[in-house]
């Protein structure tokens, strides 16, 4: 087997770059495992993508195949979470099987949500949020048991100002202690007040990275992310294709037309828009298949300019409306 630290012959691998002020490096495009580690998620079209067989063995095999394709394409940032079903387990097994050494890829995970879906599509609840010191201790132990020395970034999952986590000294002390051990500390954001959460994270001076939603439909966090970047924080962008709303399945006609004119796909053009932001450190693909991954990764070769930005500015939605739509998406 080819050494996993070597690029496939003839490939121009994406250059790794620092993730903010951390010692970590990332590639412009990373892979998020939210859609791969559990049978149900809120991405559009999962029935077509995954079929009826969502057994653990089948989902593990699918995850490994997508990870292999991502690695071969030069992707070196992988993002998971405790609440992504068995995603940490799948990733850890793949890292061991492929003999990938700690540091050869940057691995980020998150704590704060627990997966409670019992591997069912029809679960009444799939995840439960608890941003407490007890939850942190429990989930950090679980993440470390699986990922060991590979775990290089640990993020609060979907923090909000209202959650009170920024005022919980018990949690903050635990985060400081983990950071002192050499693990970078991050925060992910959610909801129409993402910008407020980002500002609190910047003010805290504790967080090395921030992971936020930014896409052509939801641009409201852009200025706050620019300020976080200027303050030295690494910026990870999630949901660049808006849970499938900016793919060929559901993309607005203006995006479909622009993509067709440029000989690319709507998802690639949408991700190219994110890559064009000077504050974006790494942008996550949420692909559930090799085909989706390849389409997403083609964003790196897809052009974006100010004229196109102006042309598609009208796609932006009111943040409250955007997040209401996202909240109404079905787990499937």
TrEMBL record:
Residues of the NADP-dependent oxidoreductase domain: 60-302
Q: CDD domains, alphabetically?
A: AKR_unchar
Please give the superkingdom of this protein's source. Bacteria
Name of the protein in question: Aryl-alcohol dehydrogenase-like predicted oxidoreductase
Q: What is the lineage of its organism?
A: Bacteria, Bacillati, Actinomycetota, Actinomycetes, Streptosporangiales
